[in-house]
Task: structure prediction
Amino acid sequence: MTTVPTPRPEPVGPEVTPLIAASPRGRRRRPSGEPPPLPRRIDYSIRWYLALAGVCGALWAAMSVPAALGVITRADLVILRAVAAVRTDWLTRLMLDVNALQSLWTARLLAWGTIAVLLAFRRFRHLAAYLVVFLASALLVSAMVLEIGRMRPTGIVILGPWQGYAQPSRPVAMLALALVGVLYTLVPAGRWRNRGKWAAAIIVAAFCAARLYLAVDHPTDQLTAVIIGWPLAVVAFWLIVPNDVFPVSYRGGRKAHLDVGGRRGAAIVTALDHQLGLTVTGVEPFGLEASAGSTPLRIQVRGPDGQTTLFGKLYALNHLRSDRWYKLARTVIYGRLEDEKPFSTVRRLVEYEDHMLRLMRDAGLPTPRPYGFVEMTPEREYLIVMEFFEGSHEIRDTQVDDRVIDDALRVVRRMWDAGIAHRDIKPSNILVRDGHVLLIDVAFAAVHPTPWRQAVDLANMMLTLALSSTPEHVYERALGVFAADDVAEAFAACRSITVPSQSRSLIRTDGRDLIGRFRGLAPARRPIPIQLWDIQRVEITAALLVALVAAVALFGAYLSVAGLL
Amino acid sequence: MRPRACLRRHLALLAVVALGAAATLAGCASFSGAVPGCGDPLRLAIIAQSVPSASYLPCLGDLPQGWEASGFAPSRGGTSFLLDSDRSPGQPVRVELTATCWTGGASPTPAPAPGVLAYTRLDSVRPRFAGRLYHVFPGGCVTYTFDFATGSQIALTEQFESAVRLYPRQQLRLVLKQELGVELNP
Result:
């Protein structure tokens, strides 16, 4: 589908140039009905799996009618008699050995092994998905077994042990479920998972063949069991932990980062071209180790003046969920001093950061120039684009002289004057270029913050500067920008938990008592309490505690119901 | 949030809750009502398969008020289930079908059906009324293991004896042939 490109708009305003480069076609509006750059794709395999679920439902519906059950049973028996025709002593012994996989301990060992590995690698989202899928499938099997109440094959000698009703075959479903659980929570997608699927399919097929040979199950008992244990479980994993958002990886690094190759890489190029008019020549991950809340990217763009580099942050649902947990934790730790609410959607999150970039730029703060954001998948995935500070270095890697100290302190002063708090002042967010301080990562910034939060910003900036200088010198320079009482307030508000973890770690390595020294230099002031309790904080904390106790109790019940005990 | 996305999200949430509730309810309901009733012969077939020689199969008739059946466990070699009375909490009657049973030391009691012999063996009379009741028939035996508080034993024994009935295998064979067109082996 095509549409006529709109005329390229002229740059608006002296400060923010909306376009630094333009594709030959310019921006392009996506017509109604055209998929977004990265449509949420339902694989063909998923569609097939859903169709199989339909087959399963149809079989169960048919089995509730005696006449249809009779037809199905007679058809099953034809197959079983054909299989029984090849029975020999040695083959029977072999099949009984294979059928030993039906032991509850097979599924239990696989399940507990999977849970242990997921815990060891702190892959809690996959663990939660695994537990939910396992419980739901176990319940579904139990419910249907009792609901249908089908007899074992009749008119043929059953050679193997059995327990309970036949439809669906519980041992087959549990084995398939345990193997699929391993594949979709522990094995990285791609070559290894594909090989694993073949191996699992061979194991399940051998098990099914053995049970057919022994006439323990009807073929249709196994068909529905395999559908529950494999396709339905895969669909559930696809819904709860889609691989393109929550990939299984053992390469280290933050698990929040998305793969920017393949479909997503192509979608980034298309989205930047159509929505921002940028001709992208390269996209690569950048500074992943310093970012947990998004996937940071360095974007090469071709413009009229040659190549330009931009900085991008890719936000997806997993980042939104991380943000929610982060803010919940902050509310519990800080109480009513943090009155922020979590973002409801990824769009809101990225809109907010774009807004803050523009606001801080308008306030004259040295933050990256915003270039807007693009929609990759509506409500699920967005990419925000901003200036890349070429030639800048992190403040720890530069000479921190009086010019840099003054500039950094003036940045805080300007934020105070503009009624803004950055809320994440730490060395990795402060860059220096040509003796000037630049501030990055404004996603946590707040407008009209609490006075406490503004004071904390000042304390964190002074601590960062003191790491490359001395508290005495930084204090002396600060008195040129702030009143002594301001500094006293900053360090009265400062606590270990208000200092970003990077700064805390550097102060510990440095060995000097920087906070104590600053407090000694500034006028005496009573510490500002931060453990303030209000009703909301009490409610949230109590709810979390109750949820924790309930989770432990539920987990115990779960283990029993899911047959893992 | 866009209205469509919002609607989709709510529908998804509703579906998850409904699925969870349905699974839980289905699971709970079925777990407690799993023992086949005498009026549902197709479900009785699994009991017949557990002891292929048994000429009678235990099934549930009308459960007296205050009684519940649970723990239905058919397997190759036998079937068992539990009958719980609210007048004897924590002490269910265990009903077990096996191919054979040992009735040594048990006293004969009135039989519930033609071709069935009944025996009772009491292990204790006071302070607990505990023991076993056997229904022995060609190819099988149903054992009822009970343990009641003395005083309520007469009513409780009558009630569980009337709740469990014996269904003839021959009749089940005819029903399966008629309804499903299959033979019940052997």
